[in-house]
Amino acid sequence: xxxxxxxxxxxxxxxxxxxxxxxxxxxxxxxxxxxxxxxxxxxxxxxxxxxxxxxxxxxxxxxxxxxxxxxxxxxxxxxxxxxxxxxxxxxxxxxx
Length: 96
What we know:
Helix content: 40-55%
Number of domains: 1
Oligomer: single chain
Strand content: under 5%
Shape: globular
Number of helices: 2
């Protein structure tokens, strides 16, 4: 669980390298995280007290050797991030 910005969120992280394109890996990670959110929302032991908005996600490239924290890395990933955003929401209904 994550409380960044004072809001409830779910932090999902995978360390082993995954097969496929960056777009495919991002979609798979988001699908897994959304499934976990749905399961937590439906968990009877939590009494329905947990609700996730589901209208945003934060992507962090957590490998500073392969993805430096700079504009060049963002530019290299931007197209993949846009493709994921387009797959998840209506055209123009997202912001990166």
